Amino acid sequence: MLKILIAEDEEPIANLIRMNLRRAVYSFVWAPDGEKAADLMDTEKFDLVLLDVMLPDIDGFEVCRRLRAMDNKIG
Predict the structure, then answer these.
(1) pTM as predicted
(2) pLDDT tens digits for 25-36?
């Protein structure tokens, strides 16, 4: 089963995404800001990241840079 990280600060949008992922029986974790998303990426492995670029604390572009740097260390 895919494990998905949802990085979205607007709760109504996050709820809509979560509702649809639940229906499709996917495993997911929600991060309401960039800092939480970055912390989760450090401690858990995800198959897919749905990333909003306009996040509080750390913007989505920086979260993406960190994700790419982690991928380069693994592969």
Answers:
(1) 0.89
(2) 999 999 999 999
